[in-house]
Amino acid sequence: MNAARNSISGQAGSVAGRIWLLAVFVTVTMLLGGTSRYDSGRLILLLPLGCLFAALGSSIVDWRAIPRLPLLFVSGIVLLLMIQLVPLPFAIWSALPGREPVAALASAMGLEQAYPLSLAPYRTLNALAGTPLLFAALTIAAAQGDAAPRRVLAAVALLAIASATVGLLQIALPTQVFYLYERTNIGSPVGLFANSNHAALCNVLGILALAGLLAIRPQDRAMRWLAPVGIAGLTLVNLVNGSRAGFMATAIAITASSVALFLAARTLPQSGRFARRPGQLAVIALGCLAAIWLAGAAAVLSGRVPAMDQLLTHSPLDDIRFALMPTLLTMAQTYWPIGTGIGAFEDAFYIHEPTALVGPTYVNMAHNDFLQLVIEGGLPWLALFTAAASGAGLALVRLHRANRLPTGSLVLIAAAVAVLIVTSSVEYAMRDPIFEIIAIMALAATCRAARAAKPALSQNHPGAPPPAKLEGNP
Prior knowledge:
The chain is mainly alpha-helical and 474 residues long. It has one domain. Helices cover 68% and strands 1% of the residues. Strands 1-2 form a two-stranded antiparallel ribbon.
C-alpha cells in the first residue's frame, strides 16, 4: 500500500506530473464548478474530488515552498467558517445583531436552544465542504515552482478558450446539449458556466492571460501569432454574449493588452537574431487589436452587439441590482459586525425583502460580491480579505522593485483588478468554484515569485554587498 502511494506521489512529483496534475485539476473544476448554486448536482462530484486533489497536491509540494500569505488566507477562511457553525447558548445568540425576528419566533415556538452564528448553517457547512478545493489550488500552484506564474496564466487562457468554444457551439447548433446546467441563460454563449456574465468574465481574464503570456515571452514565435488570434476570438465571443459588464470589461482588457504588448515589444534586443523583431511584434499585436476594435465598432454600429443594445435601450435604474441596493445597505447595517453567516444571504434576504420586489423571480445573491461579503461575513471576513488584498499588493510592489515585474505586466494586473472590481460590483462571479481556484492560484503564484525576488531586491539595495559568485561559475 505504501509502495503504491509513494509511486503515485513520485510520478505526480515529476515536472511532467505536476503539469498534468494542474491540467487535470483545472479541467475537472471547469467542467463541474461553473455555477454558484449550492444545490447543483455537479458539486456532489466536485467537492469530494476537491479532497482528492488536495491530498495529491499536499503529497508533491514542499510545504516550506508554500507562500505564507495564501496559506494563512485559506486557513483563515476555514477557521471563520468553523466559528460560524459553533452552537451558541440561546441568550448569547439572540443578542447578536439581526437575530431579533428569528429569536422571537423561536421563543414563541418554545425552541429556545443553542443555535450557530450562521442563519443558514447548512449553507455555511456546504461552503466549508468546498474549502479542500482552495487547499488543492494552493498546493498544486505552489508545486509548480518558479514556473507557477506562466503555468497559471496558461491554465486561465486555455480555460477561457475552451469555454468560448463551447459557447460558440451553444449558439451555432439547434440543440441545448452543450449547455451544462439546467438553470442557465439559454441562447447565450455561456460556455462552461451557468451565467452569461460569468462566461464573459472568463473570456476577459483569458484575454489578459494571453497578453500576459506574450508579454512574458515576446520572443516566442508561436505566441506572437496565437495570442492575438486567441484575443480576437475571445473578444468576438464577448460581443455576442449580451453581458453589459462583460462588454465594459472587454474594453478595459483590450486597451490594457494593447499597451502591455507595445511595451513588451520595446524590451526585445535591438540587435542579433531579434533585430527588427520588436517592430514586427508591435505591428502584429497592435494590428490585430486594431482589427478587433474596428470589428467591434462595426458590430455596434450595425446593431449586432446585444450588450450595447441593452446599454442603450435599458436604463440602469430599472435593473434589479439598483432596486436591491437600499435593502442590501439595510442588511449590511443590521447584521454588522457579525454577519448572517457565509451562504445565508438568501434566507436572510427573505426577512428584509420589500413588497415591491416580490414577484415570479427570486433573489438568491446580492449581485454585488463586496456587499454580500459584508452582509454574510461582517467585520472578520472584511478584515481577512482586506489583509489578503494588501499582502498581494505588497508582493507586487516587491516584484516591481526587484525588476521582476515589467511595466507591461503591471498594466495587465491593474486591468485584471479593474475588471474584477467592475464585475464584482454588479455580479457574484467569485462565488463560482472556477474563479475561486483561479484567485487562489494567482495569489500563490504571485507570492511565490515575490519571495523568490527577495534576494534580488536585497542585492539591488544601495548598501547591500555585491552578490557572491557560485563555485564553478565564471
